[in-house]
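Moderator note: this is an archived Q&A kept for reference. The question asked for a predicted structure of one protein chain; the sequence and the answer are reproduced below.
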Amino acid sequence: MLHAADVPAVTKETWSLTVSRPAVRKEQGEPLTLDWAAYAALPRVEVFADFHCVTRWSRLGTTWAGVSTRTIAALAGWPVPDDPTSAAGYVIAGGADAVGSGKNWTTNLPLADFFSPHALLCDTADGIPLPADHGAPVRLIVPHLYAWKSAKWLVSLRLSDRDEPGYWERLGYADRGDPWLTNAVNPDGERFRDSAGRRPDGGDEAMMI
């Protein structure tokens, strides 16, 4: 498995998820915080879907189990439209993995993708709890986008009215990451402007994407 940093030491006992509240009167409400017990008590869903990595492999026909993103959003008071495609705004998903300068890994998602009926907070794949290197105890799964959009070791979800590129997006990966549009990198990004074969992490070897 590929990671931007070392696998963080997070367990069910130490894990928690912080979810921002919608802005009210220009002030952000107190965030919702869930520990493992509170998360595990929420209604469960299963999603049968493929999973596509930007490094040219796919995991086909996987049953992902956990809690719907729409359930989490509603619990935090986010407006959840009946039609996901009508949602405006963005979600910034944060992982527990530190990527330098005291900052944790993030990725950005349009609300329309986050509210997809196939998107969920996942703790189990094909009936087996996620292992540590796959993002345990809880990761985001947005199966219709490339895997880097499915944040591992998920610890935060923040509602935003503006797009805020995350770790890989700032290094040249495409903003949305739609595998059906071969939307893997931003060719106009700084790290790809001079050489299409340059690694997004700044290395010298070409990386399959």
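Archived answer notes: The radius of gyration is 17 Å.
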